[in-house]
Amino acid sequence: MATESEADEAKVTDDAKATAGRASSRPAKAKKKKSAAEVQKELAEIGKAQDERPPVDLKKIYVRVGLVVAVLWVIALIVPVGGWIPKAVAGLATLVAIGVMIWLDRYVKKTAALGAILKGADTEEGRKKALERLDTEFKKGDTQAVIAKAQLQMQEDPRAALATLEAVNVEKELAPIAGQIRAMRAMLHLTLGETAEARALADKLELGKQQEPKTRVMFAAVAGEAWARSGQGRKAVDTLDLFNPDAPEHAEMKAQMWRARAFAYAAVNDTKGIARALKKLADVNPHLLGMFLPPQKKVHPLLEREAKQMVARLGVVQRKMVRQKM
Question: pTM value?
């Protein structure tokens, strides 16, 4: 029989969410329980979500660049003053444009190749083969390959993944790449319970400058959890409230977003918020509640207590819970 606290939790969401939630929750008991391996796969996808971007339309980019270069040449040819200078500027712009397009073409092809390697690494044997391919098919120090390698390692050994990422000098990388590496390192530190290290990295993430929606959400989730677990709960809540974890476009990040909210609500002693966040995670898979139970490190007492109570109510066997692997 449902308790009053459970009834309160069900009323927290807005009318639209409540209506959809009631419609989908009726047959919940009939849903097939996921295995531990399936839960591990879901958790592994959290670490890879930031790389799930739509393919770049190179043809459209080339056309636009070509039009800009053509306009520059038209101007250079019709300008009556300056002699050779306008033509030299147009020529230089043309060379730069060609160089950028060649680099972009190689970048996109390499990204596609890495994506194919990662998609084939769903098993332990697949990950082993993928790691071997990354070591042999890409140059040592290739940042894209390093990130892919860390994504594979974090599913088995977060500490090894962290060491791989720390070998990259982020100060010499382009801002988007540097941000991605910092976010991944922060996620790993949070998984290992190293909140101070995660906070230092999260403070350098520039959420407002991220044009890619998924990257922005991922940065917010990582930074929000890091702030929540290092004394800035209100800042974490305010940041996370900017994004709706239940929005369809955030499906890949849903578990991590609700995890971050659970820590944020705990940091501001919002027990109803904690219960709501944990219920959302349990709806995804009850084994995810194991992220807040021993032997996990540095979990807020309110969060740990609520997680234990929910596990007891759901009848989930704690020993079967899966440790989170990013």
Answer: 0.69
